[in-house]
């Protein structure tokens, strides 16, 4: 099933003349795809980090969490497509402490909270209005945090190496922030063999901008992590090998594809 086909808009129908296309197709051509769905936001300052968008990366990670935390236990491995079977079991949040470092409207965190994460926290990117926390009935918190800095009073300063899973979605479009993001992963992720960081990002901003985050040396030095698995996946679930450098891709193709990575703690050299 296509990722975006799972989105259902709620609310009353638009009555203003400008809303006459509100019920039309999001895309005209069947092989095209939208990269995100926007929700209402405030002024310009609130929109600069694009946290009022439901990105396809968030949709995909939420779907993977749903699959491994619920569907597999209910329906078995036969319920997933052949391509997806390679990653079954990697995205189970049940009984685990999770932290999200950015995923737009926080759908993966909401899904994790509903499906049994022991504790569910997310970085506060705006004013919290984009997260319907009142609907999730367990330990869910929104914390203020600037990547790569951990001053006293920061929302995560007292949570060093506290989380079993760290979630990142579409946060790689600023190459100058890769080091800060990696340092936050190192600070927050548990120092255990079982700890994992999940990274999902769409290619709509360009492959070159995000590729540097997965540099093996930088990951080891800044995040204390190494890549366990990494692949590319499109909006219809088709998977292919991750390629750092690729010939020029048109914007329509880029919007359809995402990179999915599972990071684990790097083994210490003896």
How would you sum up this structure, described in words?
The strands form 2 sheets. This protein has an 8-stranded mixed beta sheet, sandwiched between helices. A two-stranded antiparallel sheet has the order 1-2. Strand 6, helix 4 and strand 7 form a beta-alpha-beta unit. It starts with 35 loop residues before the first strand and ends in a 5-residue tail after the last strand. It is globular, with a radius of gyration of 18 Å. The protein has 270 residues and is of the alpha/beta class. The chain contains 7 helices and 10 strands. Helix 2 runs parallel beside helix 3 and helix 4 crosses helix 6.
Describe the structure concisely for a colleague.
It comes from Bionectria ochroleuca (Gliocladium roseum). The protein has 270 residues and is of the alpha/beta class.
Reported by name, the CATH topology is Rossmann fold
- Fraction of residues in H or I helices: 10-25%
User: How many runs of DSSP E, i.e. beta strands?
Assistant: 10
CATH fourth-tier homologous superfamily: Vaccinia Virus protein VP39
Strand residues, percent: 15-25%
Strand order of the largest sheet: 5-4-3-6-7-10-8-9
Overall average residue pLDDT: 78
Looking at the overall shape, the CATH architecture is 3-Layer(aba) Sandwich
Show unreliable segments: 25-30, 124-137
- How far apart the termini lie comes to 46 Å
Q: Can you summarize the main beta sheet?
A: 8 strands, mixed
């Amino acid at each position: 099933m296509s990722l975006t086909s799972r989105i259902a808009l709620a609310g009353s129908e638009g009555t203003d003349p400008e809303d006459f296309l509100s019920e039309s197709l999001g895309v005209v051509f069947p092989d095209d795809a939208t990269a995100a769905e926007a929700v209402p936001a405030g002024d310009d300052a609130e929109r600069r980090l694009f946290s009022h968008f439901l990105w396809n990366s968030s949709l995909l990670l939420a779907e993977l969490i749903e699959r491994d935390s619920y569907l597999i236990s209910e329906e078995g491995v036969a319920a997933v497509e052949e391509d997806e079977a390679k990653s079954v079991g990697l995205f189970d949040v049940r009984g685990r402490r999770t932290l999200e470092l950015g995923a737009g409207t926080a759908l993966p965190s909401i899904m994790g909270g509903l499906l049994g994460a022991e504790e569910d926290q997310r970085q506060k990117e705006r004013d919290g209005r984009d997260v319907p926390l009142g609907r999730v009935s367990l330990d869910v918190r929104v914390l203020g945090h600037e990547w790569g800095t951990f001053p006293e009073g920061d929302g995560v300063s007292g949570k060093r190496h506290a989380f079993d899973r760290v979630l990142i979605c579409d946060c790689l479009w600023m190459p100058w922030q890769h080091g800060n993001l990696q340092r936050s992963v190192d600070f927050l992720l548990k120092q255990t063999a079982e700890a994992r960081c999940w990274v999902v990002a769409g290619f709509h901003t360009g492959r070159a901008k995000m590729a540097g985050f997965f540099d093996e040396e930088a990951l080891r030095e800044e995040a204390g992590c190494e890549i366990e698995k990494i692949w590319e996946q499109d909006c219809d679930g088709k998977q292919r090998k991750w390629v750092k450098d690729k010939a020029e891709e048109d914007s329509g193709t880029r919007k359809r594809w995402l990179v999915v990575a599972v990071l684990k703690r790097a083994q210490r050299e003896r």
